[in-house]
Amino acid sequence: MDLTWTPEQEEFRARAREWLAANVPDRPLPSGDTREGFAAHLDWERRLFDARWSVVSWPERYGGRDASLWEWLLFEEEYYRAGAPQRVTQNGIFLLAPTIFEFGTPEQQDALLPRMAAAQDLWCQGWSEPGAGSDLAGLSSRANRVDGGWRLSGQKTWTTRGAFCTHLFGLFRSDPESVRHKGLTYFLVPLDADGVTVRGFGRLDGDEGFAEVFLDDVFVPDSAVLGGVGKGWSVAMATTGSERGLTLRSPGRFLESTRRLRELAEAQGAGGRLREEVVEASMRADAYQLFTLSQVSDLVAGAKAGAESSLNKIWWSELDVLTHRTALALRGAEAAVDEPWSRGFQFSLAGPIYAGTNEIQRTIVAERVLGLPRVGR
Amino acid sequence: MDLTWTPEQEEFRARAREWLAANVPDRPLPSGDTREGFAAHLDWERRLFDARWSVVSWPERYGGRDASLWEWLLFEEEYYRAGAPQRVTQNGIFLLAPTIFEFGTPEQQDALLPRMAAAQDLWCQGWSEPGAGSDLAGLSSRANRVDGGWRLSGQKTWTTRGAFCTHLFGLFRSDPESVRHKGLTYFLVPLDADGVTVRGFGRLDGDEGFAEVFLDDVFVPDSAVLGGVGKGWSVAMATTGSERGLTLRSPGRFLESTRRLRELAEAQGAGGRLREEVVEASMRADAYQLFTLSQVSDLVAGAKAGAESSLNKIWWSELDVLTHRTALALRGAEAAVDEPWSRGFQFSLAGPIYAGTNEIQRTIVAERVLGLPRVGR
Amino acid sequence: MDFRPTELQRELAAGTRELLDARCTADVVRAAWDKPGTAAGLWASLAELGLPGALVPEAAGGLGLSVSDLVPALVETGRAAVPAPIVETALVAVPLLLAAGRDDLVAAIVAGDALVTAAPAGEPVPWVPGATHVLVLGEGAVLAVPGIRVPAVDGSRPLARLADDGAEELTVAAGDVAAARLRGALGTAAQLVGLGERQLAMTVDYTAQRQQFGAPVGSFQAVKHHLADALLGIRFAEPAVRAAALACDGDPGAGDLRRAVATAKALASDAADQVSRTAIQCHGAMGYTDEYDLQLYAKRTWALAAAWGTAADHRAVYADAVGPAAR
Amino acid sequence: MDFRPTELQRELAAGTRELLDARCTADVVRAAWDKPGTAAGLWASLAELGLPGALVPEAAGGLGLSVSDLVPALVETGRAAVPAPIVETALVAVPLLLAAGRDDLVAAIVAGDALVTAAPAGEPVPWVPGATHVLVLGEGAVLAVPGIRVPAVDGSRPLARLADDGAEELTVAAGDVAAARLRGALGTAAQLVGLGERQLAMTVDYTAQRQQFGAPVGSFQAVKHHLADALLGIRFAEPAVRAAALACDGDPGAGDLRRAVATAKALASDAADQVSRTAIQCHGAMGYTDEYDLQLYAKRTWALAAAWGTAADHRAVYADAVGPAAR
């Protein structure tokens, strides 16, 4: 048992740190959830790709570095420490790509992954529908079998940055007789196809970061199916697993935000309860880092990530709220001013909601980790 | 709208304060949940009765002072402020008596209430059974109709101070065909009747404060029925309402315990979070006082106490836990020593459990106060 | 001893609520985001009702009310998220301007012509643009000149810094200024109670209807218990606000003024903030969009929780005010 | 980088658990309430396994293990609520006695003849009666003489004050004493993790079976979420405890020793206390009697949460240790 990086891992970290120090923009980019800011972020994504830092854990032939999970964690830690821009490609790279790696045909992988790595194709997710939020099984968008492919109809909503993306992935009901989570198929849909309409709308933190996507009898070929007809539910579950799990929320993000919180507290000479809450947030970030290192040690040794990833999701999302609430309490009357901490607070409130609300995660923990009976609600 | 006591109310308060100052024992009595301590507490109860302070809100003919709700609140505040002994008669006076006033016949009232006020009859409650805790409707103790009365059989448990009491009140299933909360009858049972066995056992805080009561074909006359055969459920609900409501937990208790908490904090020169929690507990005690004054203003004006009494119960019981947890945190390593604060902490943990767990109270608040749908759990 | 609101208090609150239900809908609050400071029509209605000059003596054209008479109506202005300085004008400024002998400005307030905003010195000043006068409370009190605007979390409550010069000192005692600051905290606490009640009601309505996993979201125990907790905070803050109002009016039974106001603002800030976060969580993604009205009230809540002293500030005041734990 | 416990560590823990499942049942802990300090048979078994002298070099008859080798076994001694000074002897005393050259006492520990208790100066000393030696850690370290007993919340872990005289100073550096205090906090944190796991498992078993309102109590969402929260605290404290053990052993990747130990003790104290309160609440009245075993583990939890620095104390240490928020 140890917590010490190998010389090779330290070398990898140093290379990442060096490149980031030389390339991260001096000033924060405008928000990636506005049209103008999204363009600036795309430039950054392409610089990352050119230097082979956009998808470090992917195979070299797709633009990656074949980096191990350990190296990926190190890269993420350096990325946040450097204050580098938000990854506007994250829905593709962190949510869709793991599913393509697991369920895609070799042809799909070769066609889709390099363009995703290079930020040529920009993917948004189509999980939610007006009648179905966390309850994916309540979807009503349909896919009708036609010659050589499928015709898709329905409405997707809450697709993050959907107005700026080129492609959508999501579930459609391909068996009209089916109910709940049976008879769903996972589709990959270009947003420039005939019959697609995208309408952007605003978020709590004021950016136009969401979109509704209307599909009116949109034709897609058979190659748009990921993982097999009627298999959509189990394919999607794999993706939401990775959204909840380690891959999206690396500890580096919270080590950095709590470090900035300590900086803020020191600048304001905070005493009393606030100081205690600053320490509490920092300790929880440390614990998240150690929990993750323990999990990754198991994964590297061949274990499977299971329902325990719900523990990660509850912990980091509530830590993020605590961190930002504490920052606002420190800022006192200035908390009413619209600036990074107050925006970050509003953004943090989405954490306990998306990718399965924390209520759902707690039920998963109780039933699948602790083994409590499933009867009742 | 005002918060000012009338001269008559202030005069009543002064008389109570004066008598308590002259009569409250200098040293705390031994715990009333031990046999020896119970005897000492009985002496105190009889002194209270002799001076007409044992049941201030009752009619004079039963030993009370016909005091108003306001005067009762003032008396309670003075009682706690004076550090006067725990009321070992509280199950009778605060739980059973309101039910007798509401449902008892004139004969029952005249026979039972004066003896209760004088601590001649000592009442314990028989709500819980081995198979039924908060779920009163799951009771299985039986009452069989016989000539001139009833035969009671079954087992009651968790009866507070049952080993030292003379009488028990509780529900029995009088209709053998009935299920859930139908077919129950409220009985008053002398513990010296043939067929009754009482076995005391210990509590979390170490006292022998609980008892199991076994009833083996115990005969009671028809006059032992309170409120009518088969009406037990609605009669009992009125009693648990008063247990949860204002009558048992007067604000004076929490004003006094938070005052002692501030005293402790000052003696220890506490800083940081602990100081904040001391203030938080004090503010919550203030808020409980004001909430109660508002409720009593409504009651005095003729309003009915309803499901809102669940709000009282959640608030005071969790305030009591907060107060004692904060005290133990202030005491640091000394918290491992068995003394009043650490015993009080363990005792406080019963608050969110008994008289309907706080989970049940929150469901009541959500359904009956907020009007959320009852489907589901 | 009778802690129930009087008939006058209940009627003023009911009249305010009726007016605001009609004239200060969510659409009106939303419109104030785009054009802050344009609530003139709404203000005229409030002035007609008498709210801005409620504390002005009847002889001077006001309603001659006490602080505790006005506070239930201020709860209603919070419930509606009125996008104008009603607490600042009616509760903070009026008694101070009367003490300073500024009868001209008081008359303009009664007439509905003056909108006086106010803030503690050093804090961003709300309701600029919109207000006609800016009152700043430090050791003393000054009428100040607004400077640059700063972006606000709550766009319907715009913020500005002060210009460096042009301020005009008011002739008032230090105690008058301290009392005005306490009234600022009290009025804000009253509005937070109304905001909390509004968001809770919206969430109860939403979760009772919204179906998920084959049942209304509001039938799940976790949601029920979250909402019961939210109600608990608001219900226990509300009497504390009325008690602080009585303390402002000098009711001897209401105890120490600073302790009472600190309790009211700390409990109301924490309770309303808890309601906002719970409401967003229970709305799911719906709570997280600026097209749904909930965010209007959540953002006002966060802005007011930060104004006139945070909950932590007021806990420190309480610790000071309560002094030694004497029996 | 491999944060998994080694095979040796897992085996020592498994062996300890097997021993304690057989020899330290709830009945044994309960018996220690009536006759504190009579765990002699149990101690002999632990000594046979090598735990008291685990950190003693093999040349001196010990197991020659590191702190991180021992810590998983200490988690097991917490799970079983071992009524004897195993953390104090094995983890606190041994390295300090080695540094002080007290080979006689070390040999007695290895032989299972010496039970050394320990406490920070000024705190009540646990395991008296029972311990053969009392180590008190202030600026320096002394072997002290116990005085009067004081009543203990956890009757199976008796407490005493110190006699005024008769203490014998050990010749050790201040750094050795500071390190010993940190090991006391670490070992206690390890036991708290085991105690938390035990109470959580008992509560899962109970609520899965206990019927109320026609369904198992553990099928209600509120109970599920309480228990999920309890698990969360324990699962995130556990790696922090192992990391602190590595920091004691000087692993450069484990970071600052004081920060690591403070994190471990604060998180483990809060998590185990939360489990205890949740467990009692979920057991209903059953959790509230001294006939049911749960209370044995809850009371040990509260005693250990208060020992070697409370969570609040360790948050203060963390604030000190983490220093300026340098990048």
TrEMBL record, chains A, B:
Residues 6-118 form the Acyl-CoA dehydrogenase/oxidase N-terminal domain. Keywords: FAD, Flavoprotein, Oxidoreductase. The keyword Transit peptide does not apply. Its cofactor is FAD. It comes from the Bacteria. Residues 230-370 form the Acyl-CoA dehydrogenase/oxidase C-terminal domain. Pfam families: Acyl-CoA_dh_1, Acyl-CoA_dh_M, Acyl-CoA_dh_N. InterPro entries: Acyl-CoA_Oxase/DH_mid-dom, Acyl-CoA_Oxase/DH_mid-dom_sf, AcylCo_DH-like_C, AcylCo_DH/oxidase_C, AcylCoA_DH/ox_N, AcylCoA_DH/ox_N_sf, AcylCoA_DH/oxidase_NM_dom_sf, Mycobact_Acyl-CoA_DH. Residues 124-217 form the Acyl-CoA oxidase/dehydrogenase middle domain. Belongs to the acyl-CoA dehydrogenase family. PANTHER family: ACYL-COA DEHYDROGENASE, ACYL-COA DEHYDROGENASE FADE29. This is Acyl-CoA dehydrogenase family protein.
TrEMBL record, chains C, D:
The keyword Flavoprotein applies. Keywords: FAD, Flavoprotein, Oxidoreductase. It comes from the Bacteria. Residues 184-321 form the Acyl-CoA dehydrogenase/oxidase C-terminal domain. Belongs to the acyl-CoA dehydrogenase family. This is Acyl-CoA dehydrogenase family protein. Residues 6-104 form the Acyl-CoA dehydrogenase/oxidase N-terminal domain. It comes from Pseudonocardia ailaonensis. InterPro entries: AcylCo_DH-like_C, AcylCo_DH/oxidase_C, AcylCoA_DH/ox_N, AcylCoA_DH/ox_N_sf, AcylCoA_DH/oxidase_NM_dom_sf. The keyword Transport does not apply. Its cofactor is FAD.
